[in-house]
Write a structure and sequence with these properties.
Elements (H helix, E strand, L loop, with lengths): L1 H14 L5 H14 L12 H4 L7 H7 L2 H13 L5 H17 L4 E5 L12 E2 L1 E3 L5 E3 L3 H5 E2 L19 E5 L6 E3 L2 E10 L8 H19 L9 E15 H5 L2 H6 L24 H16 L4 E6 L5 E6 L2 E2 H21 L2 E4 L13 E9 L12 H20 L1 H6 L22 E2 L2 H11 L8 H20 L10 E3 L4 E3 L9 H26 L6 H15 L12 H10 L7 H5 L5 H9 L5 H56 L3 H38 L3 H12 L1 H16 L10 H6 L2
Parallel strand pairs: 1-8, 15-16
Antiparallel strand pairs: 1-2, 3-4, 5-6, 6-8, 7-8, 9-11, 9-12, 9-13, 9-14, 10-11, 14-17, 16-17
Helix pairs in contact: 1-2, 5-6, 8-17, 11-12, 13-17, 13-18, 15-16, 15-18, 17-18, 22-23, 22-24, 22-25, 23-24, 23-25
The chain binds adenosine-5'-diphosphate and magnesium ion (MG).
The site of magnesium ion has 3 residues, from loops.
């Protein structure tokens, strides 16, 4: 293929002196794309038969583990009980036998460092035993703990170089799986001092906190509840671009998004992509992806076209939150690999193209008991309704009290483009609950203080009971503009970005709800103490106060509107539009205490994360600024000058032919020449200023100050430089334009 590229490149150079290497690549990529056929995907077996084939599931465990070993994994799963080292040896032996029977040759601890991707270091089972002999070995020690040379992962100052060791440790609550020929063991990643260096560790701690807090409250309604699990169903949005087209653009290659490019005449105005028929090449990709997901036990269920051209979505059946987070990370990795086979590049970026929709990752969240009840399911009996209302109202209260922290958890350089842009939830956090539940809460609020009279109680129950079950039937009043919406039997956190690791929002959401439920229990218990008040009355009374206290976070209108911004400001809700601003909430004394009280993160861990997020923000903007400067100065300006020279030559020729009359005949050409000069001038001087701003920012020692400088002093140049480059795109001869255009990226199939 490369040979063919080279020939065309040479031909193109011979054809015209004006064409640049980049423009040649563009045309070659277009040609390649137009010639592509869907890659064949075989599907001989039913998906249900494939499901979990490469996962160390309970039934596989029963087959490959001793009874004792199997019991111990189950217990670790249910109660978090530590697995004994000698038993770990049995488990590893069984796991190894199973993995080898499936063709695995290597094993790895599979973890999620704070880089946002997954990490793995493969080791072979193979070991020599002297005498020229070798065996397959995998001991309990290797299963339980490893010490990867991890000094290059972000740690935010947690890991001093003198103790640069990091440990990965097996997380038995997420089953091992075989990917390719490698046995992957989901693991946490911690420092020598035990501080979390990954996304999973705080998540597991937060899930433990919500389990404790929610179980205690659920027991008010059903004594048989012993465990509450947070559930997560994510929806992954993404763009698929032909890989040749994607690699013809340095910005997509290096930043995962376009930094310039004029909007095509047609974008998504006609809404003809959403839920439309899936293009054949994409369908092939999806089928292979889904097959792989089935084998790995990721229960993907839904696929469809999204709003923007070449934008798609994939969603699984919800799972326990820790497993769902692992599955999303795994999915993102698989997607890239399978896309390669189909000559696609997956763009997970929140805003790869200006002017059309960006991508999010809605996090659908709920709580479910070991008795099989969804605590956010409205139910049908009064007792269950009160239980529903309890969890429902406590969640709203938690979001109300910690909206800024929730906003911080979804902050990133890439999500900044999406939040507050036209199609995405605003940077303001609010909850939408629909008209029926609003009425129910209004009703509850009216209850008089203190003890409920029998009549009030009956009325209230009748009213509440009469209304709640309908929600399930009528989901139509969903509000797509809300950042945190109740959708029938779960909350949907919509502001999460498509590149995010769900562990972050899930850690915070579960932590704040856990804290809230603990407070709720304390208040109810103090009212019922010494039989002062009946339990039901106490619950109603506390809930009523919460409804009043958290009213400000509830908003049923258009979250995209300017009026809402004004209204939200009046209500005192935060509107942190950029990452450095939003991140400040992470490290307030109040929030550090929240994490510490719940044992989710200690001060060092919180501060380290804050530092890492700021560093990442700085680097992203710095990289984009460099790419933009490079493309604009080394590709756009030279192309503009080439075209300008063609025009100048043309004007000179006209002069030769028309002599005195030449001005009338060359008037338009001269106009274009002038216009080009003016764009070149602005672009070049703004790049100089942007570089200077970068230099000034780089001098700052403090990460937060530096992040603010990149945000407020460097980033503002992006838009203007882009504007002038995009204007040149419209002026200059298409034949020499070096950058694959939006129309070509989004509509070539
Ligand atoms: P949409 O938001 O696109 O209309 P759906 O209403 O179909 O989508 O829901 C999408 C997601 O909600 C799916 O990922 C699904 O697994 C998840 N979901 C459904 N019930 C729950 C629950 N109890 N807990 C967590 N997620 C859930
Ligand atoms: Mg959704």
């Amino acid at each position: 293929m490369w040979g063919c590229k080279k020939i065309i490149y040479i031909c193109a150079i011979q054809h015209t002196n004006n064409i640049t290497a980049m423009a040649t690549l563009r045309f070659q990529a277009l040609k390649e794309t137009l010639n592509r056929k869907p890659v064949e995907v075989e599907e001989k077996e039913r998906r249900s038969e494939l499901f979990g084939r490469n996962v160390f599931t309970e039934s596989v465990m029963r087959q490959f583990l001793t009874k004792e070993a199997y019991q111990s994994v189950r217990e670790a799963n249910a109660t978090g009980k530590k697995i004994d080292r000698t038993i770990a040896d049995h488990i590893s032996t069984g796991m190894k036998e199973w993995a080898i029977s499936k063709g695995a040759t290597h094993y790895t601890h599979w973890f999620q460092p704070l880089t946002g991707t997954t990490a793995e270091k493969h080791d072979a089972f193979f070991e020599t035993i002297g005498d020229g002999l070798a065996i397959e070995k995998f001991g309990g020690g290797q299963l339980v703990q490893q010490e990867p040379d991890a000094s290059s992962f972000p740690h935010g100052g947690i890991r001093n170089t003198f103790e640069a060791r990091g440990y990965t440790a097996w997380d038995p609550t997420s089953p091992a799986f075989i990917y390719g020929t490698t046995l992957c063991i989901p693991s946490v990643f911690v420092s020598y001092t035990g501080d979390a260096l990954d996304f999973k560790t705080p998540l597991l701690r937060a899930l433990h906190a919500i389990d404790e807090a929610a179980t205690d409250v659920a027991k008010y309604f059903d004594k048989n509840v012993n465990k509450v699990q947070a559930t997560l169903g994510w929806e992954q949005e993404y763009f698929l671009i032909d890989s040749a087209l994607a690699s013809s653009r340095p910005d997509i290659q290096l930043a995962g998004r376009t930094l310039l490019g004029h909007s095509p005449a047609k974008g998504q105005q006609l809404d003809d992509h959403y839920f439309g028929s899936i293009p054949p090449r994409v369908l092939s990709f999806m089928r292979e992806l889904e097959k792989e997901c089935m084998i790995l036990g990721v229960p993907v269920k839904t696929r469809h076209n999204e709003v923007a051209p070449n934008q798609f979505e994939l969603a699984p059946i919800f799972e326990e939150a820790n497993l769902a987070v692992d599955h999303n990370s795994l999915l993102m990795d698989i997607m890239q690999r399978i896309a390669e086979r189909h000559n696609f590049t997956v763009l997970f970026h929140e805003k790869p193209f200006a002017g059309i929709n960006g991508s999010g990752k809605h996090n659908n969240w709920s709580l479910s008991t070991d008795t099989g009840v969804n605590l956010l399911g409205p139910g049908s009996t009064p007792m269950k309704n009160l239980q529903f209302l309890t969890f429902f109202i406590n969640t709203i209260k938690a979001v109300h009290d910690h909206e800024e922290l929730l906003r911080a958890t979804i902050a990133s350089a890439s999500n900044d483009h999406r939040l507050g842009a036209n199609e995405a939830p605003p940077a303001i956090i609010s909850t939408f609950i629909g008209s029926q539940l609003t009425e129910v809460l209004d009703e509850l609020e009216k209850v008089t203080d203190g003890k409920l009279s029998p009549q009030e109680k009956t009325e209230l129950k009748l009213n509440v009971v009469g209304k709640i079950p309908e929600i399930l039937l009528d989901n139509t009043d969903r509000n797509r503009t809300s950042s945190f919406a109740f959708t029938g039997n779960k909350f949907e956190f919509r502001a999460v970005g498509s590149t995010a690791n769900c562990a972050q929002p899930m850690t915070v959401l579960n932590s704040i709800v856990a804290k809230q439920l603990k407070e709720f229990k304390k208040e109810v218990d103090s009212l019922t103490k010494g039989k002062k008040m009946k339990k039901d009355d106490a619950i109603f009374n506390v809930l009523r106060e919460y409804i009043k206290d958290s009213k400000n976070i509830r908003f049923e209108g258009d979250g995209y509107s300017e009026e809402w911004e004004k209204e939200a400001a009046k209500r005192g809700l935060s509107n942190n539009r950029n990452t450095p601003e939003a991140l400040q909430a992470m490290v307030t004394e109040e929030n550090i205490k929240l994490f510490e009280d719940l044992n989710v993160m200690n001060r060092v861990e919180v501060e380290a994360r804050h530092e890492i997020e700021l560093e990442e923000y700085i680097m992203r903007i710095q990289i984009e600024s460099r790419i933009l400067g490079d493309i604009a100065r080394n590709h756009v300006i030279p192309t503009a000058i080439r075209y300008q020279n063609i025009l100048i030559k043309n004007v000179r020729g006209l002069k030769e032919i028309f002599e005195n009359d030449f001005k009338t005949h060359s008037k338009e050409q001269v106009e274009i020449i002038k216009e080009i000069s003016s764009h070149i001038e602005t672009i070049n001087s703004e790049i100089t200023q942007m570089i200077e701003a970068r230099k000034q920012a780089n001098k700052l020692e403090d990460a937060e100050e530096k992040a603010f400088a990149y945000c407020n002093k460097v980033k503002p140049y992006f838009e203007s430089i882009r504007y002038h480059c995009d204007k040149l795109e419209l002026l200059i001869d298409d034949e020499i334009w070096p950058l694959t255009k939006y129309r070509e990226l989004l509509f070539t199939r």
